[in-house]
Amino acid sequence: MNTRIAAIAVLSAALVAGGATAANAAAPAKHAPARTAPAKAAPAKKHAPAPASSISISASATRARVGNSITFSGSTTGLSKGSTVTLQEQNSHGKWVSLDATATVDRHSSYSISDTLGKGTQTLRVVDGDTTSSSVTVVVK
To answer: What mean pLDDT comes out for the span 30-53?
Structure first.
């Protein structure tokens, strides 16, 4: 019976020790620093939306003779220095057609394009990608 009691005592001690070890593993050690909630990231700065890009246009003349050069100029917002703007004319079907007249936006956000137009009433605008100016009408006789 002594061996039986000794065996039970050893098993009991092993179970108690195993349970204590598991309990200690689950509980934080007394010398470990207390856990703190992770620091929250600073809220993202809200930037104002980029201004919509725009192009203005004016013509040096609204009436001209065939062969005379007309200068189209204006300013831009939201376009980068060096952007290329293209002069377009509206054809008889209402479709905008690019002409071979382009200019580069300068450091002051301005441009200037000169072109010689054919006879008739011409409706023109300047574009850069999806950004378009209003239109101007020039009568060439």
So the answer is: 65
